[in-house]
Amino acid sequence: MISPLSTDSAGSIAMMIRDPPKQDRMKELKVHVPVKYHLQLHSLKVLEGRQIHSMVQEALDQYFATLKPEGRHDE
């Protein structure tokens, strides 16, 4: 929810965001992928009956799980 805070002499309105964005909601992201990956994703969609967005989400979840948090060198 956005609410105006004040206006300046030029009529510009300063805004403040009241509610932080929810991280569990979905956001559309358009990306370009090599044709090879698109064909592989489409093949999996046809063979396994899964949606491409769920396969991409699963792959990204696995990728981000492998990353070390910044500042940690003990692993």
Number of strand segments: 2
H/E element order: EEHH
Helicity level, as a percent range?
25-40%
Q: Record the strand order, biggest sheet.
A: 1-2
Structural class by sheet pairing and helices: alpha+beta
Number of helices: 2
Apparent shape? elongated
Q: State the end-to-end CA separation.
A: 41 Å
Poorly predicted spans: none
Mean pLDDT: 79
Taken as a percent bin, the fraction of beta residues is 5-15%
Q: How large is the radius of gyration?
A: 21 Å
- Describe the largest sheet: 2 strands, antiparallel
Descriptive report:
Strand 1 (2-7) and strand 2 (13-17) form a beta hairpin. The chain has a domain at 31-68. Strands 1-2 form a two-stranded antiparallel ribbon. The mean pLDDT is 79. The chain is α+β, with helices and mostly antiparallel strands and 75 residues long. The chain has helices spanning 35-48, 52-66; strands at residues 2-7, 13-17. It contains two helices and two strands, in the order E-E-H-H. Helices cover 39% and strands 15% of the residues.
